[in-house]
Write a structure and sequence with these properties.
Blueprint lengths: L32 H21 L17 H5 L2 E13 L3 E13 L6 H10 L5 E5 L1 H5 L3 E2 L5 H21 L4 E5 L7 H15 L6 E6 L6 H8 L7 H10 L5 E5 L17 E5 L11 H12 L7 E4 L9 H21 L7
Parallel strand pairs: 2-4, 3-5, 5-6, 6-7, 7-8, 8-9
Antiparallel strand pairs: 1-2
Helix pairs in contact: 1-3, 5-6, 6-8, 9-10
The structure holds zinc ion.
Zinc ion binds next to loops.
Length: 346
Amino acid sequence: MKKLLPTSTAGSLPKPSWLAQPETLWSPWKLQDQELLDGKQDALRLSLQEQVHAGVDIVSDGEQTRQHFVTTFIEHLDGVDFEKRETVRIRDRYDASVPTVVGAVSRQKPVFVEDARFLRQQTRQPIKWALPGPMTMIDTLYDAHYKSREKLAWEFAKILNQEAKELEEAGVDIIQFDEPAFNVFFDEVNDWGIATLERAIEGLKCETAVHICYGYGIKANTDWKKTLGSEWRQYEEIFPRLQKSNIDIVSLECQNSHVPMELIELIRGKKVMVGAIDVATNTIETPGQVADTLRKALQYVDAENLFPCTNCGMAPLPRHVARAKLNALSAGAEIVRKELSHQIPD
Ligand SMILES: [Zn+2]
């Protein structure tokens, strides 16, 4: 019997305080050299244990080996100079000093494949691995070489495809691409954003997901959310094209957001990771609140396609808060599972 409503997280989880400064993005490592490598593996094991104890069904590395979900991947590529920095506006929202693309981008060796292999050795549960999506990658760089967002995105898509194929071979069950930029640049998403994502998943046999959210609970994002009005209809701009794409799963922010749930109807047929945990607050959801969100989503997603999830990554949260939120996610999913009278036969 296949389990109904399998739970998972959108990606990052808090790191232990001996590895990196807690509750901080881009937190510097506290260890060095071999100690750092060992420390990252230990943290990955801990993060996995916490997910298992909380009853999470589809587990991940909690992004314990990376400093940031976009930057760490790019650091491993050729063609990007991290010393040469320019200030650009990220997702049309906040200014940041970013590295410069100075030549042709390429991947000389795998970035996360060893980590994925390590995670695979630790568990028999299905595993999901997150990579940044092409559009979100280009949006965190200054491009002095291609001088075309689209061209650079296609180059990154090729590189992501190489990495994804090796992750699949390492035993990853679901490869997820994080594309918060999809919520901002609608015309580009429809012109080439989704097409580059499809290039990134070309030839993969494992399941593929795209995570589209309103960002971590950092100030720049919460300020931006205040400007979006009472109904957030961003998803409406891109769902029709996404529905026609080859991506299997769409991961969304639904808890406490102002996204009208009925928009999910526009991607009917896709599997949907429904964010039922708000990552922008330390308040712990009750299992009943999680169940309510899932029930609302069930009006627009068939039960066998619904994956209860978090709105976004939880890296910036205190560890005990993240743990409690994972417990609430499992408990809420279990309530709804019981309500659905049957399970799907294999
Ligand atoms: Zn997110």
